[in-house]
Specification:
The structure holds two protein chains of two kinds.
Chain A lengths: L2 E3 L4 E5 L4 E3 L2 E3 L5 E7 L5 E7 L5 E3 L5 E5 L4 E6 L8 E8 L8 E2 L3 E6 L1
Chain B lengths: L4 E3 L2 E4 L5 E6 L6 E7 L5 E8 L2 E5 L7 E4 L6 E5 L8 E8 L9 E2 L3 E5 L1
Parallel strand pairs in B: 2-11
Antiparallel strand pairs in B: 1-3, 3-8, 4-5, 4-9, 5-6, 7-8, 9-10, 9-11
The chains are: A mainly beta, B mainly beta.
Chain lengths: 114, 115
Amino acid sequence: AQSVTQLGSHVSVSEGALVLLRCNYSSSVPPYLFWYVQYPNQGLQLLLKYTTGATLVKGINGFEAEFKKSETSFHLTKPSAHMSDAAEYFCAVTVTGGGNKLTFGTGTQLKVEL
Amino acid sequence: EPEVTQTPSHQVTQMGQEVILRCVPISNHLYFYWYRQILGQKVEFLVSFYNNEISEKSEIFDDQFSVERPDGSNFTLKIRSTKLEDSAMYFCASSGAGGFTDTQYFGPGTRLTVL
């Protein structure tokens, strides 16, 4: 069965600093990876996804992530944090034949400080 | 932009009562899902639904749970006899014809509180 691990349940950065949220996956077959963001009292919004092809994927709001098979990682980055980036971020994985179910990590709460 | 909607936003019920959570997926989507998030925990998959039948379900989705697409627009989750541990945020999602690589669009959720 597939799974994802998000290191760091809480990350705090200064406005303008680099954002790095870590995600490692486990899967016996090629994974398809997603990052979702959840703002307070809202649903989940897709930031970006990796299915096939280019391993560096760009998403909304200046975020990007790189699929590294050798490291089983899919870390999320943004060069310069903005106050509006404060939210909870979830990494998720799915594989073929699994009924399309997404398996989520435990989430990382991002705090952006002045 | 099309979006998934859910009603009600908050449901309070007594233990043992039946609840029905409602969702209107994006109109041309073919796959439908329910997830839940217990407070402070991760989002968990409950069930996926395609072509009027369940395609996958988790261990959580036992006989107390059922899903239905009663018409061309609604997708419902029924919990037959609620338990305290069913208290959670329930998210509906839908995706298009691309299957597992297609983006799942989530609704805003229904917060279920079981007393």
